[in-house]
Amino acid sequence: MTLIGIDLGTTNSAMAYLKNGKPEIIINDRGERTTPSFFQVDRENKIQIGAVAKNAYTSYPWETVLEVKRLMGTEQKVDVSGNQYRPEEISSYYLRYLKDSAEKFLGKPVTEAVITVPAYFSDAQRKATKIAGEIAGLKVERIVNEPTAAAIAFGFENMDKDQHILVYDLGGGTFDVSVVELFSGVVEVKASAGNNHLGGMDFDNAIVDWFVKKYKTEQGIDLFGFGTEQELLQRKARLKVEAENVKKALSTQSSARLNLPFFAIYHNSPISIDEEITRTQFEKLINSLAESTLEQIDKVLKDAKLTTHDITEILLVGGSIRIPLIQRLVEMKFGKTPRKDINPDEAVALGAAVQAGIKSGEIDSSKGLMVLDVCPYTLGVDVVKNVGGRMVSGFFDPIIPRNSTIPVTESNTYVTIADNQDEMYLGVYQGDDEDQYVRSELRIGENDIIISGIPRRQAGQEKIEVKFTYDINGLLEVEATILSTGKKQTEVIDVQKGVMSKPEISLAKEKLQREWNQSEFYHEVKNVINRAEKIIDEVSPNEQAKIHDMLSNLKNALSQNNANLVKKYEEELTDLLIELV
């Protein structure tokens, strides 16, 4: 069994393993240390993942998906060339590509992975990530928070130091901040906070919005107000990619240019773009977003009961920390320079590999590193309260407070609210300690847990103890006990809105295998298909008919993913082409 660590990112992903007891990045099959999180079905119906898909994005935006991580844990589907995919499915293709690349790099099967997620990912988003791994053929028993993984990578090299570190993780689509204490080989997360809708893609969009507004003001033309749906999609893709290039350039330059020749045709005249933007202008565009991260820092320090002066080291993680404004704000906040020797693109994957080593036993936690993480959200139930003589439902009653060290078990006791009540309905939710009401989007479990068999007595005389157990992978177990009878009811919540069901997972596995194999088969035979299609117009009608029949047979075999027939028809077509040449 080979177990690797994977940083499944919004814009880029990375993977690592333990080599001679130390974490090392795994190079993908294109020789890259990170893999762009792009999915594409090209015009030849071949699945493309990573740099190939990213490079073709502006030409084929309809066939390309990116930034799907923000959709994890939702029921929203993604359209690719007219085909519908769940976010878990798209992520599973990324993971399958990473798995295959790792197997080629290591020379042996990879069966299991530790996958990282943003610290502020909800229960549904964590389950969706595990499901994506399962669809890809990976056993995923361990989910690790991204800033925790970065802290593990740092702590692995600094086990002899006692200190408080702050991990500031600003990636392509999410932001997390964690306070971590290192002592005697222990990595203990004290508190986490974050924003799952803040990252580099928002900075790109700020540039796009600025330019579109500027162009409309100066030229009177809304660049996205005319053209076909396909033209608009391609236009948005080109401007988005150019905005990302400009953002990156402004990290090292004081100004950059948006340069997009022949961007559109308006009233039969071509529009080309060549516009300068300075770093100062860019910083004004993103300043409020950047400063909002400082609010999360304040929150996490408060939860950890620490001040900025208590922080020994600051780790900046994620590609977006290269923006000078971000570095400047963090440095001003703490009055000290963050560590510069941490690779922001690789730290999370390296930490995941260390965690994988701990799980596999390759790293003996009793003799070395031990990791203690926290529950990022408060977990509780919805309760009914007496408000002005009326019973009002929908109030949030916390059971496990956020930032509790995991695994953790806590309980509360509730009473019946009606005479002769023989059932109690429990709705389980995530939230924050200060939430007064439950939030429907953070409901855990598709349906209420029904506690039945309560003795019929007057209201308030029957008590039910509700116990929550939250494990290291974010799996919640609920146990309810009717105290008067001792009757217990236990449920592990694994089905909920926004998470694929077991039948859906099985179908997704079959779909991935079918499309992946079809893609691989096509890759193996595309050269002979291309040769046949080129020569068909140069031969006699009789020979054209033979080529056409063989091409049809081969393409039908590809659509059926029948390896034996693909090989048979490829050989027959190859022999015919040799005869004709």
UniProtKB/TrEMBL annotation:
* Keyword set, alphabetical order: ATP-binding, Chaperone, Nucleotide-binding, Phosphoprotein, Stress response
Q: What is this protein called?
A: Chaperone protein DnaK
Q: Which InterPro entries match?
A: ATPase_NBD, Heat_shock_70_CS, HSP70_peptide-bd_sf, Hsp_70_fam
- Domain of life of the organism encoding this protein: Bacteria
According to the record, the segments passing through the membrane are none
On whether Nucleotide-binding is a keyword of this UniProt record, the answer is yes
What is the species listed in this Swiss-Prot or TrEMBL entry? Answer: Neobacillus novalis
Q: Give the family, as the similarity comment puts it.
A: Belongs to the heat shock protein 70 family.
Instruction: Tell me if Heme is a UniProt keyword of this record.
Output: no
Q: Kindly give the Gene3D superfamilies that the UniProt entry links to this protein.
A: 3.30.420.40, Actin, Chain A, domain 4, Substrate Binding Domain Of DNAk, Chain A, domain 1
Q: What is the recorded function of this protein according to its Swiss-Prot or TrEMBL entry?
A: Acts as a chaperone.
A Gene Ontology MF term for this entry? ATP-dependent protein folding chaperone
